[in-house]
Amino acid sequence: MPENPEETEKLRRIRGGDVRMASRLIRNLEDRLPEAKRAIKRIFPHTGGAHVVGITGSPGAGKSTLVDALIAAFRKQSKTVGVLAVDPTSPFTGGAILGDRIRMQRHAEDPGVFVRSLATRGALGGLAKAAGDAVHVMDAMGKAIIMVETVGTGQQEVEIINHSHTVVVVLVPGMGDEIQAIKAGIMEIADIFVVNKADRDGAAQLISELTAVLNMAPETPEGWRPPIIRIGNAFDPVPFSQGLDELAGAIAGHYRHLVDTGTLGDRMRRKTMVEIHEALRDTILEPILKDLTESGEMDRVAERLVRKETDPYTIAEEIARRFLK
Ligand SMILES: Nc1nc2c(ncn2[C@@H]2O[C@H](COP(=O)(O)OP(=O)(O)OP(=O)(O)O)[C@@H](O)[C@H]2O)c(=O)[nH]1
Ligand SMILES: [Mg+2]
Hints:
By secondary structure, this protein is an alpha/beta fold. It has helices spanning 5-15, 19-30, 34-43, 63-76, 95-103, 127-140, 155-161, 177-183, 203-216, 237-260, 264-294, 297-306, 312-323; strands spanning 51-57, 81-87, 113-119, 145-151, 166-171, 192-195, 228-230. A seven-stranded parallel sheet has the order 3-2-4-1-5-6-7, sandwiched between helices. Helix 5 links the parallel strand 2 (81-87) and strand 3 (113-119). Helix 6 packs parallel to helix 7. The chain is globular and about 65 Å long. Magnesium ion is lined by residues 63-64, 96, 100, 149.
């Protein structure tokens, strides 16, 4: 790749933690500009130092409240923090994320904290990739811990969360959350469970149900048993901060476990596999779909399928033969 002095300077500034430069790049990632992809290619060798923590759970489970409090806990330990709030449901930056911005504003003056949000703009399916790349940007900035918050409801969210080393699943009593989590395949990827708003009725029942499910689950290759952490009412400072310290400790403990058992490499590989899939989709599938759509062939194909003149497999094979010579 030819050296471009301007891009070299941008990269240098991002690695120095330049907030404006990093924010611009993340915006370009959302807009899927070609220059953003070029920048990620150059940033990639400078990543891998951060501990990436995914935080997922139902809408309104209290994820942002936890993330905000965790920022403070990690800053007390002098760790630098990046936060990425991903909202796959809203095509525009929605109210919840706007609220997060305001809430997390108290960290805005702190150069050790960098908070961004990401929303889908148009194209489907690109969000997980954009999120993974935004994490790379924060990683290259030198953030020690990067938290990725996403609403855990579907496949896309699971893909986003797969960009993490440590996955925290936030459940709330009385919301049928454990059923939701089982359905969405989230139980399998959880490293830590939080029973949030644990002052509510049903907390004990949720914990015993969760324990039963965990007892049935086969041991992970890493030999890690996900802890269940109760966190009380966020507006009741003493129990809340106790639960929170326990959570911060469990997050650090999980990372230490990955390092000590030599399984951090496996997690890294899982992360890179996800990235390769996403990059292939971006490089192969998306251009083909774009071509078919713009040339009008997609509509013609759809018509033929409706009339049962052919079938999806035959069509896909024809297209593959044509494009992947
Ligand atoms: N009673 C009670 N309310 C809480 C607690 N934690 C958070 N909340 C409130 O629940 C609402 C949602 O909290 P958030 O932290 O925004 O939840 P979230 O999971 O980030 O929500 P989304 O990002 O919109 O999915 C807010 O009004 C919080 O003030 C808690 O421990 N107890
Ligand atoms: Mg939130």
